[in-house]
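Reviewer 2 asked us to include a model.

Predict the structure of this chain.
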Amino acid sequence: MKRMPIVSLFATLVLFSFHPAEAQKSPTVRKIGFLGVSGGPAGANEVLRRSLGELGYAEGHNIVIEYRFAEGRPRLLELANELVREKVEVIVASGGPAARSAQDATKTIPIVFATSGEPVESGFVDSIARPGGNMTGMSWLSFELVGKRLELLKEAVPRVSRVAILSNPQHPGEQRELRETQSTARAMGMTLDYYQTRTSAEFDAAYDAISKQNVNGLLVFPEGVTLANRMGIVDFATKRRLPSMLGWKEYVEAGGLMAYGPNRDESYRRIAVYVDKILKGTKPADLPVELPIRFELVINLKTAKQIGVTIPPNVLAQADRVIK
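Predicted model (C-alpha cells):
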C-alpha cells in the first residue's frame, strides 16, 4: 500500500515533464528533386544547394535533395520518372531537355525550370506573366543581348566584318534571335554567314564550310548543343585565329575569347527562392517566369594572345571577369 503514492508520483512527473512543443522540435523533412544533364561541385546543383541553405534548408536536417544526372546518356525521362516515384514535392529541371522530360513525367508535381529557350514557344507555360499548369522558372533567352554581343565583338576587334554564326535552329526562340542579330549586323555594315548545328555531328561540316570562307569572326548562340560542343568550338576558333563571341562564361572558361550573357548562378539563386515559395504553399501558376536581370562580360586574355588580338582598355574596363 505504501508503494502506491510513489507510483502515482512517478506517473505525475512523467506526465508533466512531456511537453507537446518538444515533440515538435524534429523538423519536417521536405524532399525535392534535381534533374540535369550533368552535375558537379561547381555546377548548378551546388549553387542551388548553397542558396537553399541560405534560406534555412540543410540537407540531412530539414530537406532531402534527390539528384539525377543523365551524364551524356539519353535517359532524362527515365530519371524524371524516378523522381516522381520518389514522391518529391518539387522538381528543379536544369536545361530545356530536363524540363521537357519532367513535363512528360508529371502534370501535378511543381516543376521549376532553368532554360535557355523561350518557355512559351517551348510549351512549358501559357505566358511569362501567367504560367498556368505546374511549371514556372527562369529563362536565359534575352533578345536585347543579341545586338550587344555583336557590338562588343566589333568594339574589341575592330577588323571583324564578316561573322560566322553557329546555332541550333531547333532551339525555341532561335529564329527571333537570328533576326535580331541580322538587324544589328545590317546597321553596323557587317556580313553574317549562318551555319546550323542541330547535333554534334553537324559541327565538323560547319567548320569545313567556314574554313572556305573569308570569315574573320565567330558568334555562337548559347544553348545546350553548342554548350556540349564548346571544346570543339573553341579549338576550331583558336586554330583559325577567329575572335569569338559566345553567350555564357562556360564557353570562355573552355577557351573562347569573349562571352556576354546572363549570370546563371544568380538564376539558380532565384530558383531556390521559387522552391522555397512552393514548399510554403505558392502554386507555380502564380509565379511568373523570371528573365535575367544581371549580365556579365567575361574575357579570356590568354586566348586573345593565342590568336593575336589585343583587347582595347575600354573593353577590358567593361569586363566583369578577365581570365589571364
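Residues 264-279 form the longest helix (16 residues). The first strand starts at residue 30 and ends at 36. We have added this to the supplementary material.
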